[in-house]
Amino acid sequence: MTRAVYRKTVAEVLAPSDGPILYCGMSIGFEDGTVAYGRTGRAPLDETVTFAQS
């Protein structure tokens, strides 16, 4: 799994400082309704994501 394929391209557009990192993950598939597990809560989008326009 390569997590930094577009790191340089994104840095050219956003010019981030040394502190923040860009990370994006996506889960693809279907929920298995036969598996018992605790469902975690979700934070609101505006608390976790910053949208940037170039």
Global shape: elongated
Low-confidence stretches: none
Strand content: under 5%
Give the % helix: 10-25%
Main beta-sheet annotation: none
Supply the helix-strand structural class.
Answer: mainly alpha
The tally of helices reads: 2
Q: Span between N and C termini?
A: 27 Å
Q: In angstroms, what is the radius of gyration? A: 16 Å
**How many strands?**
0
N-to-C series of helices and strands: HH
- Mean pLDDT comes to 76
Description:
With 54 residues, the chain is an all-alpha fold. Helix content is 22%, strand content 0%. The chain is built from 2 helices and no strands. The chain has helices at 7-14, 45-48. The radius of gyration is 16 Å and the shape is elongated. The model has no long low-confidence stretch (mean pLDDT 76).
Task: Offer a quick outline of the entry.
With 54 residues, the chain is mostly helical. The chain has helices at residues 7-14, 45-48. The model has no long low-confidence stretch (mean pLDDT 76).
What's the helix and strand layout?
Elements: H1 7-14, H2 45-48
From the structure above, extract its key features.
54 residues; mainly alpha; 0% strand; elongated
